[in-house]
């Protein structure tokens, strides 16, 4: 019984050690790969039309040992997935901040503005 509990506990602890990319389904990662970061000055380009798709955010939360570590990378991936859900293909990053809000002992929250870039005809 004691041996079984130790094995279960070790398994749960190791599950929290996954990398940020491993936490997302492959289909979400594929969609997020179509979204690129850009700088605000790029909105002035004359060869592309940028259509605002609204604000997006992504979070990475560490609650207990079972959640693994919160990371800025994971929050940025989640933000790219949110942009892809809005049919956007570009993001202007506004901010990434680390705090302890919600039920998180550590939380990363990134916010940005999503855009759809279309070549001018």
Structure notes:
- It is a single chain.
- The chain has 121 residues and is an alpha+beta fold.
- The protein has one domain (2-119): Translation Initiation Factor IF3 (2-Layer Sandwich), CATH 3.30.110.
- The chain contains 3 helices and 4 strands; from the N terminus they run H-H-E-E-H-E-E.
- A 4-stranded mixed β-sheet has the order 1-3-4-2.
- Strand 3 (90-99) and strand 4 form a beta hairpin.
- It is elongated.
Keyword list:
signal, RcsF, 121 residues, Translation Initiation Factor IF3, alpha+beta, RcsF protein, disordered N terminus
What's the helix and strand layout?
Elements: H1 2-15, H2 26-32, E1 36-38, E2 48-62, H3 72-85, E3 90-99, E4 106-119
Parallel strand pairs: 1-3
Antiparallel strand pairs: 2-4, 3-4
Helix pairs in contact: 2-3
- CATH C-level class is Alpha Beta
Residue-averaged pLDDT: 84
Q: Separation of termini? A: 70 Å
In this structure, how is the largest beta sheet organized?
Answer: 4 strands, mixed
**Contiguous uncertain segments of 5+ residues:** 2-18
At the fourth level of CATH, the homologous superfamily is: Hypothetical protein apc22750. Chain B
Shape: elongated
Instruction: List the domain count as a whole number.
Output: 1
The structural class is: alpha+beta
The CATH architecture name reads: 2-Layer Sandwich
Order of helices and strands: HHEEHEE
Assign the CATH topology.
Translation Initiation Factor IF3
Strand content: 25-35%
* Number of helical segments with 4 or more residues: 3
Strand order of the largest sheet: 1-3-4-2
In total, the number of strands is 4
| Cα Rg | 18 Å
Q: Portion of residues in helices?
A: 25-40%
């Amino acid at each position: 019984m004691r041996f079984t509990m130790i094995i279960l506990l070790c398994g749960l602890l190791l599950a929290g050690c996954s990398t940020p990319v491993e936490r997302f389904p492959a289909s979400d990662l594929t969609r997020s790969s179509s979204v690129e970061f850009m700088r605000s000055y790029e909105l002035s380009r004359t060869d592309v039309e940028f259509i605002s798709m609204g604000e997006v955010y992504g979070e990475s939360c560490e609650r207990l040992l079972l959640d693994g570590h919160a990371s800025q990378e994971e929050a940025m991936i989640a933000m790219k997935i949110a942009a892809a859900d809005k049919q956007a293909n570009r993001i202007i990053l506004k901010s990434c901040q680390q705090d302890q809000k919600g039920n998180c002992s550590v939380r990363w929250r990134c916010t940005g503005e999503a855009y759809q870039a279309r070549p001018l005809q």
